[in-house]
Write a structure and sequence with these properties.
About 30% of the residues lie in helices and about 25% in strands. The protein has helices spanning about 10-20, 50-60, 70-75, 80-85, 95-100, 105-115, 125-135, 160-170, 240-260, 295, 305-315, 390-400, 415-420, and strands at about 1-5, 25-30, 40-45, 65-70, 90, 120-125, 140-145, 155, 180-185, 190-200, 205, 210, 215, 220-225, 230, 265-275, 280-285, 325-335, 355-360, 365, 370-375, 375-385, 405-410. It is globular, with a radius of gyration of 21 Å.
Length: about 425
Amino acid sequence: MKIMVVGGGGREHAIIKKLRENREIEEIYALPGNGGMKDDAVLVDIGAKDIDGIVNFAKENKIDFAVVAPDDPLVLGCVDALNEIGIPCFGPKANAAIIEGSKVFSKNLMKKYGIPTARYEVFDDMEKALSYLETAPVPTVVKADGLALGKGVIIAATRDEAKAAVRSMMENKIFGESGSRVVIEEFLEGPEVSVLSFTDGNVLVPMVSSMDHKRAFDNDEGLNTGGMGTVAPNPYYTKEVSDECMEKIFIPTIEAMKKEGREFRGCLYFGLMITRDGPKVIEYNCRFGDPETQVVLPLLESDLFTIMKAVSEGRLNETEVKFSNKAACCVIVASKGYPVKYESGFEIELPETDENSDIFVAGAKIKDGKTVSAGGRVLGVTATAKDLKTAINDAYKLTEKVKFENGFYRKDIGKKALKALEG
Ligand code: AMP
Ligand code: GLY
């Protein structure tokens, strides 16, 4: 069995390592992957957005199954194109990936089907958006409609800040065409929870919950990043909250997508906020989260490939999806200066890992036989343990052993979660 994984970050490394546990799989190709995964996959120099290149590679190499991990190729129709030449895939088709690809689509879907989310207005005319902001309550949240590398959300504390955000998106096009339409929405408060789920469009199985840490520095200071670390499970996601999410959010979402003729098969990610009025959807992603995957998959006890195949064939109900009761923590080591400006090319030496730890490489390449940094987020140092406190300790102990001169990491990943657990 030959598998191809599209994408090249830490999330893809975690997926590849988990897939390798399946004995049927002989070869895994990563398109493009990164140098830090060279022992786990064959690296193929084809970019994740090069749909024609991906399809040609799959055809020429007789790929049996493809996992399309990042948002861009999913939204661009990579799964549709691979299905067309008969290659089964894990990941939604473009008409379902739109749940992440367009915030206007997802907000309208939630409104139509009564799925709890922040109140909002949509604007494609800048003057109208600006005049709405004259009287809108603040803080408020301005979002670019399309994909914006996870940066298209601006939380504005004042009306002037909100107006500046609208101008930067609609006039100065800082996110390109993604900002020609904007959503202006109510500011919600409460702890955030990420829930990834497997769904074949009819059945939905949530994975263990997790908590991301999006800001660059300790105590949630600094700019928003792709994510500086994660823990799982998320202590705010109690049994009560999870039951409510299943009933009011998860099932209604896949039912809504089905009714719209957009059956979703793949990993549907719910970015939730647990507000005083109950859980609400902050965002949907049409894919595994990064770095959520780096704590969720190490806790998966069932075989990932079996689940992925079942999802793609619409047989998820026949498949066991079991998670361990342990906890996990992932500390991201990033290049100094990330998420703004950083240098690459620094040598990295990784410590040994054991059956309870792993280092997923997000941005590295091989130069003169050595592993060097090649990106903003570089490593995801992960440990699993019987409880969260031990997992956090173990992840940090391992992180301290990493040799990477230009690296930095947050020292407080999981602190909030521990505090919530300990009351
Ligand atoms: P997103 O790019 O959609 O993940 O949003 C980035 C972050 O912005 C989220 O993780 C939240 O912390 C925050 N955010 C997004 N929407 C809202 C909202 N309506 N109210 C408060 N915070 C929000
Ligand atoms: N960690 C957030 C995301 O993957 O979108």
